[in-house]
Amino acid sequence: MKTDFEENSWVINYSPDNYYNRKFTITDDSVLSKGDKSITWINTYGLQYMDEFRQMVNGNNLDDFLLRLLLNQKMGNKVIELEDQLFIAARILKTEHDSMESEQMYFVVSKDFVWCIQEKWGDHFDWIRQRIFENKGIIRKKRADYLLFFILETLIANYKEKYEETVLMENALEAIVKQEPTPEFMFEVEQKKAIIQDFKKASHGLRDIIIKLERVEVKGFQTKYFSELREQISGLIMDIDSDIMELESQINLFFSMQGHRLNEVMKTLTIFSVVFIPLTFLAGIYGMNFDNMPELRLANGYFILLGVMLIVVLVTIIIFKRKKWF
């Protein structure tokens, strides 16, 4: 009867000649270093198995400090050098779903094993496993540092693919100009900014890890692979920064366009007001019920007042035209 830890752990052991892939059995697979030219890759899904983690650490003569590190489930992004081992903590985005949740990942790495511990179930590493099973490329001829390189490269590729799928900046300028400043639209803008910031934070975390990996000095661990990863993640960060600037520019343009539209409306209303204010004034005067108003007894008084009103309107329009107010 397998324990919950064993049900949520897989082990792949491979060499240039062969491989095996099966669910983890703590009594048979607890030895990470086989003492030969093979590489062991263990995937564990879940951070709650501290008793089993302790058994793995003690059974493989790993640094006891690992247990303290594994207890901290909110570590963020760190690279810590231990004796002949490397501990990596990464806070990554789960790109499998639209919710864009984050999870904590840990890597315990030596020259001949990678122990990958994930907070949540699921990953994007099937293509790496397939290369191992089918002996494609040189992965089965390389050590554990090359496997770690592939894993980190997959995380970067997933970030880039999901980012391009989620944050579509193309043709956004035309769409944003036509939008109205409704609460729904502003919520969409803020949501988009939050997604971009999540990608930026996660990408910066990976870049910090990669930069530190370029500088580590662990026996049997080569750092030459990680320069390429630094270029990849730096390119993604540059794209994100560019999109942030573009989005901010579009938002500013959007509000400028809305302000311009509001000014045009206010201008039209002001013109109508200026035209009708003197007419209202004249109509108000002759609408008063005083007995001593000589103009009321004129036979053509009504038509004279209409003529005066027409002249006032024409003079006002001429003044507006000359000042190019419309």
Automatic annotation (TrEMBL):
Keyword Transmembrane helix: yes
Topology versus the membrane: Multi-pass membrane protein
Gene Ontology molecular function: cobalt ion binding; cobalt ion transmembrane transporter activity; magnesium ion binding; magnesium ion transmembrane transporter activity
Keyword annotations from UniProtKB, A to Z: Cell membrane, Ion transport, Magnesium, Membrane, Transmembrane, Transmembrane helix, Transport
Signal sequence, start to end: none
A GO cellular component entry from the record: plasma membrane
Catalytic reaction list: Mg(2+)(in) = Mg(2+)(out)
Transmembrane segments annotated in the record for this chain: 269-289, 301-320
Record's subcellular location: Cell membrane
InterPro entries reported in the protein's UniProt record: CorA_cytoplasmic_dom (IPR045861), CorA_TM1_TM2 (IPR045863), MgTranspt_CorA/ZnTranspt_ZntB (IPR002523)
Origin: domain of life: Bacteria
Pfam family, one: CorA
Family: Belongs to the CorA metal ion transporter (MIT) (TC 1.A.35) family.
Role summary: Mediates influx of magnesium ions. Alternates between open and closed states. Activated by low cytoplasmic Mg(2+) levels. Inactive when cytoplasmic Mg(2+) levels are high.
Protein's name according to its UniProt entry: Magnesium transport protein CorA
Lineage: Bacteria, Pseudomonadati, Bacteroidota, Flavobacteriia, Flavobacteriales
